[in-house]
Amino acid sequence: MIISFFSTGTGGGAAPVDYLTAREVLACDENRNLICDDTGQPQTKIRDPLPEVLHGNPDQTRDLIDASPNKWSYTAGVISFADYDDPRPDAQQEAIELFEALAFAGLDRDQYDCLWVRHSHEGNVELHFCAPRLELSTGKALNIAPPGHENAFSSLRDLMNKTHGWADPLEPDRSREVRATIEAPTRARARGAARMDPRSDQRRQHHRPRQHDRRAIRGGFRDPPCKQELHHRQRPRHRRALAFERRDFP
Question: What is the mean pLDDT of the chain?
């Protein structure tokens, strides 16, 4: 199980709430790219099973976000489970309650609004949340994910995963040494052509740095200069002219 906060959070409430509750959505492939038809128009698909509203009122959440005078008007994210976690309904409810106890610590239930919607159409359980950034009793801004929030929610994630035996994203077996990326065919062909071009070696030789400029950059700082470089950087020593005063002795 992982807890993620989305980078979105500005604008009206229609977009985040409709994403959580929509019956029909844009179709994407496994790399999250839109699937288009022969004419280039994006295709759609029906979520099956349909989203389930667990807590909150979508219309109320949408209206509260629209009423916010702040630039950042809402916070959205997801508690996502692995497909083989198969969390029971009571365990899902526990995860929601612990999340709210941490996110809205010190507030009563009528002082905040949080919409929870379950998605399971991708084969795993995802508990999506959307909270207006408003403290309802005063109308002041309420940020449940301030800078540094990752540490607190990571601790909650680890606690829940250990308690229920859910998939731990930090396990070595789940980590990847190499991240697979999808490269456009045109980019691959261009890279291959550059390797086959005999002029590439000549260009590399032509732009090879001179000996006194070869200094590695580590962590944004250059290595200390060598002794020869220090010698050339030293200011020339100016010899003091000795002034002799001529005196006549009796």
Answer: 81
CA distance 140 to 175: 41
| 235 lies in some domain | no
CATH number reported for the structural domain that contains residue 41 in this entry: 3.30.930
Number of domains observed in the structure of the chain: 1
**Of 91-95, 202-206, 215-219, where does mean pLDDT reach its minimum?**
215-219
Look at residue 223 and give its three-state secondary structure: coil
Q: Phi and psi at residue 131, in whole multiples of 5°?
A: -125, 125
- Is residue 3 within 8 A of residue 156, CB to CB? The reply is yes
Does residue 224 sit within a domain? no
Query: Mind listing the pLDDT tens digit for each residue in 96-105?
Result: 999 999 999 9
| Structural domain includes residue 178 | no
pTM: 0.68
* Residue 150 covered by a domain: yes
3-state secondary structure 74-139: EEEEEEECCCCCCCCHHHHHHHHHHHHHHHCCCCCHHHCCCEEEEECCCCCCEEEEEEECEECCCC
Q: Hey, which residues are catalytic here? A: 19
Give the residue numbers spanning the domain of 130: 2-169
- Cα dihedral across residues 116, 122, 125, 126: positive or negative: negative
Q: What pLDDT, in 10s, does the model give residues 123-149? A: 999 999 999 999 999 999 999 999 999
